[in-house]
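Re: that backbone. Tokens:
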């Protein structure tokens, strides 16, 4: 890669971190909420020119972004998130602690009870629409030309908050984010010496907005909508 395209690993910033922090702090006790999964329900695969692709078009770990957005809402005053995605690991570790204490402590110290959630957040990535907008321009004059092309995809997420005590859906929201791609190129194509020789020069570049960043932004927008 060219030097100007190489970079060191860096912590990814929330696309809408300021909007999450600008949510008014909750003037009530923090709500305990659990998230079991936030899955890809689109069934979309990455496009390929000559073969079927087994890679999904969107992330399969979107619950990471949901948990992060819930923890950031209102500077952490809105939600207390309890672990449910890795619940099996938590239970196994608690069993190990309990077994170790019973075997090696004369008076085994009991574990604190796990905290239960009054709310459950459900939902997933429900849409990934490709080529919702396409276009471009191009021109050639005496073998010298330039072209530009653009494309817009759209990702849609939906989430709902469910009361554990009653099973009632308290709120349901959806959010979408556009993913823009842009390409530009220049080329020269001429015949020289009575068409016996050809001169061809091409130059171009493309810019693609990250799909993961778009999914994360849509998730954060949905969490903001829930809080308001």
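Recovered sequence:
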């Amino acid at each position: 890669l060219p030097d100007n395209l190489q970079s060191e690993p860096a912590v990814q910033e929330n696309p809408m971190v300021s909007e999450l922090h600008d949510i008014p702090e909750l003037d009530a006790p923090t709500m305990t909420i659990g998230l079991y999964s936030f899955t890809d329900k689109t069934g979309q695969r990455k496009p390929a020119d000559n073969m079927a692709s087994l890679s999904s078009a969107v992330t399969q770990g979107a619950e990471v972004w949901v948990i992060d957005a819930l923890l950031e809402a209102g500077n952490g005053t809105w939600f207390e998130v309890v672990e449910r995605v890795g619940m099996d690991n938590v239970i196994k570790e608690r069993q190990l602690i309990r077994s170790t204490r019973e075997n090696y402590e004369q008076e085994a110290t009991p574990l604190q009870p796990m905290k239960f959630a009054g709310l459950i957040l459900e939902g997933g990535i429900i849409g990934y629409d490709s080529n919702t907008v396409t276009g471009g321009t191009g021109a050639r004059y005496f073998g010298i030309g330039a072209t530009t092309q653009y494309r817009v995809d759209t990702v849609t997420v939906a989430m709902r908050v469910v009361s554990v005590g009653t099973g009632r859906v308290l709120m349901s929201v959806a959010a979408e984010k556009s993913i823009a791609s842009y390409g530009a190129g220049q080329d020269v194509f001429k015949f020289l010496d009575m068409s016996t020789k050809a001169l061809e020069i091409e130059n171009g570049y493309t810019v693609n907005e990250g799909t993961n960043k778009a999914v994360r932004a849509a998730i954060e927008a949905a969490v903001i909508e829930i809080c308001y």
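The chain has four helices and seven strands. Residues 76 and 179 are 29 Å apart (CA to CA).
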